[in-house]
Amino acid sequence: MKSGSNLEKVLTAGHFAVTGECGPPRSADGKIVREKAKHLKGNVDSVNVTDNQTSVVRLSSLAGSLLLHQEGLEANMQMTCRDRNRIAMQSDILGAYALGVRNLLCLSGDHQKFGDHPEAKNVFDIDSLQLIQTVKMMRDERKLLSGQEMEEGTEPRLFIGAAVNPFADPFDFRVYRLAKKAAAGVDFVQTQCIYNMAKFKEYMKRAHDMGLTEKVFVLAGITPMKSLGMARYMKNYVPGMDVPDLIIDRLKGVEKKGQAKEGIQIAVDQIQEMKEIPGVAGVHIMAIEWEEKVPELVEKAGLLPRPQV
Amino acid sequence: MIIAERKPIEEILEMVRDFKKILIVGCKGCVTVCNAGGRKEVGILASIIRLAREKDKNPIEIIEETLERQCDPEYIEQLADTAHEYDAILSMACSVGPQFIAARFSEARVFPALNTEFMGGALEHGVWAEFCQGCGDCKIHLFGGFCPIARCSKSLLNGPCGGSSGGKCEISKDVDCVWHLIVEKLMSEGKLDQLTQVKPIKNWATSRDGGPRKVVREDLKL
Asked: Residue A108 and residue B166: Cβ atoms within 8 Å?
């Protein structure tokens, strides 16, 4: 075991893993995180806590992770390269581990242009690949980037995660970027929300053929659509999102008040399909501000009960 | 070269509002090439200010001059005889110029007429883009001749990130994803190996992050 985290245990034991997501609030209201946790507890193996996603200031991912731990859930703490330099990142990694964080997701981060502080100065001292390498070095070599060594037993033993987007361009390079993350030392990756199953299968086939799924656990990203409007918005306005007409048509096919139910059913169908794709080790459910639907979704998808390992 | 752009006229008029006699000084270097602060632009700005002030019934005397360069003390020295005669000096060089003038003539009130934008080149007539960030450790040969430091919005050494879409950057459809260009070029040349090795963490000490920089050439010192 690298970290001994619940997620690592579930994946290593060969179970089909389920991770969730929790976006902290734009205030110091920890109750919101605790509320979201209630919907996820018992339904997922661990929960991503986002790090100021879309560059909007929110309660920190470390604080959010600790709140989840207090509620009996396990966090996947997200860390972006946008807001911290290598000094702050290593410091936060050490601190997070000392406070009980066991899974760390290494991300570049959305550009601040999208967020509520477009006039901010960004950092990008290191990139997500280099962050993966850094965490691995801290864990496996017990060294900081400076070369400073940590005594045995005092190093942060984290399960290292990253994100991949099979639908960003150039498509032919995307699987090589996964290979780079594997070479850098990532243990698991979560994908961008998947709607174009054919394209995702092609990506997974390439990853599988290259032997990458032997090295890295791939969790397929699932975001249930709340409405036709959301589907259209994601198709037209979210960069790197591939929403085929098939999804739009399915939602169009039902009356407005039935669209949320259809959105859940689409997600259920997708999860069933994911279970059959070679190399897919689990799903990452991002029910954006819709955490209360997660229990129903995992139930319908036959993912309960979650394994006790 | 250094690409600069004239400040909005309202901002410049506000700067010189209380002055009766000013010098507008251009530069024959980069800002002449990028049509921001050469002799021609000095003349245009002087005319605009004069007209605006006449309209306000608050006339102003403007002297126009354009130096060989404003980033070299020897050319700044050409202003020595007259600098004291002006209420203010408006420099149309990149920000090096007004800083040199202000340092040389401590009594003078010096204002920048331009915003210094970036180091770049012309894409077409009237369009300039950023190509260099002056990081002090050029590695473009490792990236198919493109600079990811200056031209990737996140300065990624191991791009492209998940926001690359249709060859464009996530921040704007007007911004090319430089990593798309790098990948296309190296893959078409069969140099996939250059892309698949993880590029190490950059040493930013040679960049601005190491503090204000200086280049010293002992062989050239007098």
From this structure: no
Per-residue CA distances from B98 to A65, A107, A295, B105 (Å): 51, 42, 65, 10
A43: which DSSP letter?
A: T
What distance in Å separates the CA atoms of residue A82 and residue A278, rounded to the nearest whole number? 34
**Judged by CB atoms within 8 Å, which residues 93-132 of A form the interface with B?**
108-111, 113-114, 122, 124-130
* A307 is a domain residue: no
Residue A172 in tokens: 């032919």
- Give residue A187's Cα distance to chain centre: 13
Tens digits of pLDDT across chain B (222 residues) = 999 999 999 999 999 999 999 999 999 999 999 999 999 999 999 999 999 999 999 999 999 999 999 999 999 999 999 999 999 999 999 999 999 999 999 999 999 999 999 999 999 999 999 999 999 999 999 999 999 999 999 999 999 999 999 999 999 999 999 999 999 999 999 999 999 999 999 999 999 999 999 999 999 998
Place of tokens 């698991």: A188
Write down all domains in chain B, each with its CATH number in brackets. 2-118 (3.40.50.2300), 133-205 (no CATH)
Q: CB-based contact (8 Å) between A173 and chain B? A: yes
> Does any CB of chain B come closer than 8 Å to the CB of residue A168?
yes
CA distance B162 to chain A (A): 5
Dig out the tokens for B115 from the structure.
């915003």
Whether A142 is in a domain gets the answer yes
pTM confidence score = 0.96
Q: Which domain holds residue A150?
A: 6-300
Enumerate residues 6+ apart whose C-beta is below 8 A from A108. Answer: A80, A81, A82, A124, A127, A128, B154, B156, B161, B162
